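Troubleshooting entry. The earlier prediction with uridine-5'-diphosphate gave an output that would not parse, so I re-checked the input for stray whitespace and re-submitted. Clean input:
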Amino acid sequence: MVDLGGPESHLRPAVAAAAVTVSLLLSFVTPNLIGPRMRRLAREEVPVGIRPRRQWVLSGLSITLSLALPLLLFARDEPALRAIALLSLLAGAAGLANDVFALPRVVQVLAGILIAWAAVHLGIALDEIKPPFVSHLIALGRWSSVVTMIWLLLVAYAVVVCRRLPRLTPGLIAIVSATFALAAFIAGPSRSAPAAGVAGLAAAAAALGATRRSYPALGSSAHWALGFALAAITVAGMLKNTAFLVLAVPLLVLGVPVGETTYAIVYGAARGGSRFALGQRRELLHDALIRMGLSPRRTVLLFQAATAYLCAVALVLVVLVRVTFVAKLGLLGAALAAGFVLFFFAARIAAEPGESAEERVNLLGVPLARMGMEETLARVEEFVRDRSPHLIVTSDSTGIVRARDDPEFQEALRSAALVTADGRGVVWMARVLGLPMRERVSGVDMMERLCQRAAERDWGIYLLGAEPGVAEAAARALCARYPRLRVVGTHHGYFTPAEEPGLVRVIAETRPDLLFVALGAPKQETWIRRHQDELGVPVAIGVGGSFDVLAGRRKRAPVWMQRAGLEWLYRVLQEPKRLPRLLALPRLVWMTLREALRRRG
Ligand code: UDP
């Protein structure tokens, strides 16, 4: 058996760096070298049912060569690297034959076994492992070849499974290979670790070029070359580690393909096993996600995020190699449980909501309007015409939690004519619970749009709340934007209980159509509800810190943060005293999770 690298290894860092750089260059440049033809193929609409053979062949050649050539050129003296390079060439060639001739399944399986056998003869072998609680390495002896071949085939198969979801493989391989490279470097002093590290980086580089959108579909060639290279890297890099790491790290790092196959097995078994017949299309996890309403693109992104998470966990385990086995197991369990919850939440949130005729959804006891901005504005118009008092609440996710502990606020929410989702958190929570929410309608956006409409319809508006001078400044800013806006009055929000009856009377006498109340939640909602009848205003709405924003005293989060659902973070950074509010978040996650499980059960 060839000795894989070692302390006497000739692999110099400069040479290794050159090999990886050339891999990267080749993987990015080949599509351009082949030039317009490649791009045309990428754009070409391939009719469903026709195999895009030329695309498979070109991308297979490009990836296999980007991976293998630099390793052969720069590190021929390094047996492990030469072995990995030759193996990926061999696997790429076999894959190419499958791309062109569509080999029967039996031949594909035989080819796989032959490649694995060749790998063992090239020197890639899992020859000793260290079981938990045992301090020495145990030699696998004559079982080494069989164990290695099974392992190589399993890992390569896990990668080939990813083929069913177009565009998943390149990103996945890039993340996974880079992780193995890092793990191999950290986990040293395994003798073959440097080689595995360099090969991992070269594979990551080769895959990275294919993550570009213009790249054609990947076929067997690319998948087999990358799959076997990765399998060989896992063997070379993890060889001399504890059995726990030898098993846990690849299983974690390949969590997505492993999850896909496990799902197929569990789902198939639950369905009576009929789906297991050879040649039948199995139901994989991504099929279930797409049925749930995720687009293929979001599914790929979700899988890549999951892979990145699992890779990070794997790296932490590698770093903590000296920690006791039980502690590592506990850490792994906790990380997997948290990852599962995150994955479940993210999948539900990313799914397109189904259509529903319902106007409201019941979110943990809060009747939440499903409407978008336009419908909300139309509804307010009806309320103004109706003239009887209506309360509108714009609730963020902390409001939903608060309603649990504050009966008066809960009553206000229940009696409200409309509760809108003021924040991504609320929309996300609803989606996690499978409630078909569409978009958020924030207080400050709604206030602006309502003022625009008020100017058009000649509605009178009253601004109550915020520190002295702020309501006036907000009114001036609004009037500058909508010159025909009729502001019938303003008042600050720091009045005493004794002043309250007088204030209510003044507001009622000015007869506004819309009353904006900025006292902060839940004060503003309970205040409106208590005085609704005396006020006689058709529409009163709690708008929190909107006056401060309109008056220019407080900045709104940048649009990208709003889109990413991070407005709360921006506000906390701006006003650290809001930090205690974040304590509601873990409770919110817990409440949502419990409810989600209850609904499923
Ligand atoms: N406020 C007020 N009277 C009070 C307490 C608060 O007018 O007794 C004002 C405060 O000046 C600020 C707004 O209410 O303009 C609360 O803004 P915040 O962003 O905290 O609202 P929330 O996010 O709680 O809805």
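This one parsed fine. The pocket of uridine-5'-diphosphate is lined by residues 465-467, 493-494, 518-521, 544-545, 547-548 (CB under 6 Å).
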